[in-house]
């Protein structure tokens, strides 16, 4: 694996090529070498022909030109095959790494973005395409160097000067088009383009968005927003394109000076009789090879864009720090302060919280109080900027749990992919969250893909999905890895009966283990051993239900408010 410094650099990308295997790589290399050397070599029979070499020189020249054409033409499909195979191998590795990731990491938006890049590529370019582009660029450079060497045989400094100008020109064009801040730079394509793509995708999405668009009549609004987003995306690009066109003027000027200078020097030497007619013809072809490198080529896009998916792959395949030891099931946060990147203020500040092994702890607070953030600190997904956090391994169900478009069995087994559980383990996890009924509604039982994208698949209701996510966490605990269960709004989608049933079963099932429950439902919360009220980034109150009710603080106020809403009868 590459170091962080050269991740995405040409050497690191070239090291991917052997992944294609010798059967695909050997023809690609042979064709590449052929395309690179036959051009410079053809200057020999060309020189002889011009110098009066006759049929032999002509045949040799024609054969070489034909072979070069063939090599150049066949190198493209051979390169595409190599790129496909390299990408296939990388995708398989990334999928295996993703399958082995703990769900908490898999649900990290940065990891999700890396997965998208690694599996789909960036702007149609992949890591394999970038690796092939490195080889193609190396071939073009080799041709240019050989051309420069031929020029230098006749005028010692001419080849070096022409090559230096050509390399500088190539760098300049690459920087203008795909370098940092260049017209097609990755950063530039970032946010504004994603916003436009998101708006365009919204309309085509079969899920909730399409329904809302129709119901609220959002078509014109969305089109307007899309046009505005595309304008915002295109405006700086158009400005930069203008500056690129001006930049191209300079680059072409330099090329013109370089070409005119080279041909002038050659002419002077030929006129003085130091270069014969045949040698002059060879020098002209050699000079054209040098200039061709300076003009750049489409490979620079493959290289620049394909390096992004490669960086994502290296991040995803980086050895994951060993999971924390199972621990006792307890958690210990001391003086913890946590601020999201670019946020003006910390979400949590100087927070102390101890969760005893086996304790049933509930966390409550207003929207945005930091409950989910606290859960992510407890699971070790986030590390605090200040303070210390001692955690235990925990199974987690987040509010925005993932709905995998996979069979029900896999949706549960992803709780601990390393555990070789049987169907009985999967069924036990489903039973623990009162979800066995679900099986009767699915045509292929555990084998039913949970997605309407498959003809044999079924989508689930919000509550059913929530039970599946809970079953996944229970499966992870049953696998023996985790001593604690952290659930963020575990029953938000469930009706009152289902909520009661599921929570009873969870309490029973997690007996002896730690349960951390984040919820706005006080009927559930009140059953915890201890309730922690988060407010203003710190713990405002804590204690048992009776204790907090007697204290008459936030908790008592919210509890009564919720109870009133339920019991109050309309006039
Ligand atoms: N990834 C993020 N990047 C930046 N800010 C975030 C991020 N996630 C949450 N926040 C902010 O942190 C604060 C706390 O959010 P958090 O989700 O922890 O609250 P919560 O108590 O769980 O809220 P709710 O009850 O609505 O689920 C909010 O102001 C939110 O906007």
UniProtKB/TrEMBL annotation:
Q: Where in the cell is it found?
A: Cell membrane
Output the Gene Ontology cellular-component terms.
plasma membrane
Keywords of the record, alphabetical order, are: ATP-binding, Membrane, Nucleotide-binding, Transmembrane, Transmembrane helix
Q: Which GO terms label this protein's molecular function in UniProt?
A: ATP binding; ATP hydrolysis activity; ATPase-coupled lipid transmembrane transporter activity
Q: Provide the ABC transporter domain boundaries.
A: 331-561
Tell me how this protein sits in the membrane. Answer: Multi-pass membrane protein
> Which species does the entry assign this protein to?
[Actinomadura] parvosata subsp. kistnae
Report the SMART domains cross-referenced here.
Answer: AAA (SM00382)
Q: Which Pfam families match?
A: ABC_tran
Q: Which PROSITE patterns match?
A: ABC_TRANSPORTER_1 (PS00211), ABC_TRANSPORTER_2 (PS50893)
Asked if the Swiss-Prot or TrEMBL record annotates the protein with the keyword Aminoacyl-tRNA synthetase, the reply is: no
Under InterPro entries, the record lists: AAA+_ATPase, ABC1_TM_sf, ABC_transporter-like_ATP-bd, ABC_transporter-like_CS, P-loop_NTPase, Type_1_exporter
State what protein this is by name: ABC transporter domain-containing protein
């Amino acid at each position: 694996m590459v170091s962080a410094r050269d991740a995405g650099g040409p050497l690191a990308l070239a090291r991917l090529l052997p992944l294609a295997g010798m059967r695909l790589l050997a023809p690609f290399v042979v064709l590449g070498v052929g395309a690179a050397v036959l051009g410079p070599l053809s200057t020999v029979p060309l020189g002889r022909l011009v110098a009066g070499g006759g049929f032999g020189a002509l045949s040799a020249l024609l054969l070489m030109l034909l072979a070069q054409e063939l090599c150049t033409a066949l190198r493209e499909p051979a390169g595409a095959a190599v790129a496909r195979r390299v990408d296939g191998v990388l995708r398989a590795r990334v999928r295996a790494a993703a399958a082995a990731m703990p769900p908490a990491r898999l649900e990290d938006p940065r990891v999700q973005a890396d997965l998208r890049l690694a599996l789909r590529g960036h702007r149609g370019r992949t890591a394999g395409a970038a690796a092939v582009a490195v080889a193609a660029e190396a071939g073009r450079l080799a041709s240019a160097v050989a051309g420069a060497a031929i020029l230098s045989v006749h005028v010692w400094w001419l080849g070096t000067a022409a090559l230096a100008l050509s390399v500088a020109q190539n760098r300049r064009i690459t920087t203008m088009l795909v370098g940092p801040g260049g017209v097609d730079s990755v950063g530039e394509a970032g946010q504004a383009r994603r916003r436009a793509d998101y708006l365009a995708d919204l309309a085509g999405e079969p899920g909730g968005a399409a329904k809302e668009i129709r119901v609220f009549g959002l078509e014109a609004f969305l089109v307007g927003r899309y046009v505005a987003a595309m304008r915002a995306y295109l405006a700086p690009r158009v400005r930069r394109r203008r500056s690129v066109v001006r930049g191209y003027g300079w680059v072409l000027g330099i090329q013109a000076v370089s070409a005119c200078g080279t041909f002038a020097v050659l002419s002077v030497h030929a006129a003085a009789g130091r270069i014969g007619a045949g040698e002059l013809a060879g020098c002209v072809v050699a000079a054209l090879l040098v200039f061709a490198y300076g003009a750049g080529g489409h490979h620079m896009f493959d290289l620049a864009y394909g390096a992004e998916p490669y960086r994502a792959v290296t991040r995803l395949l980086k050895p994951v720090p060993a999971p924390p030891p199972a621990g006792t099931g307890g958690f210990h946060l001391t003086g913890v302060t946590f601020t999201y990147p670019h946020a003006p203020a910390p979400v949590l500040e100087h927070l102390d919280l101890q969760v005893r092994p086996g304790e049933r702890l509930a966390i409550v607070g207003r929207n945005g109080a930091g409950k989910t953030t606290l859960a992510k600190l407890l699971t070790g997904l986030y590390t605090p900027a200040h303070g210390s956090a001692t955690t235990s391994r925990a199974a987690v169900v987040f509010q925005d749990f993932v709905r995998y478009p996979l069979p029900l069995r896999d949706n549960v087994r992803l709780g601990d992919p390393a555990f070789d559980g049987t169907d009985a383990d999967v069924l036990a996890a489903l039973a623990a969250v009162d979800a066995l009924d679900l099986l009767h509604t699915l045509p292929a039982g555990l084998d039913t893909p949970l997605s309407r994208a498959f003809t044999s698949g079924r989508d689930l209701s919000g509550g059913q999905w929530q039970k599946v996510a809970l079953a996944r966490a229970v499966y992870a605990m049953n696998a023996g890895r985790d001593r604690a269960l952290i659930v963020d709004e575990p029953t938000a989608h469930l009706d009152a009966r289902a909520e009661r049933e599921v929570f009873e079963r969870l309490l029973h099932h997690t007996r002896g283990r730690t349960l951390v429950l984040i919820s706005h439902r006080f009927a559930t919360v009140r059953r915890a051993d201890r309730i922690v009220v988060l407010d203003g980034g710190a713990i405002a109150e804590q204690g048992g239900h009776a204790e907090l009710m007697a204290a008459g603080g936030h908790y008592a106020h919210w509890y009564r408010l919720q109870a009133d809403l339920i019991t109050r009868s309309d006039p």
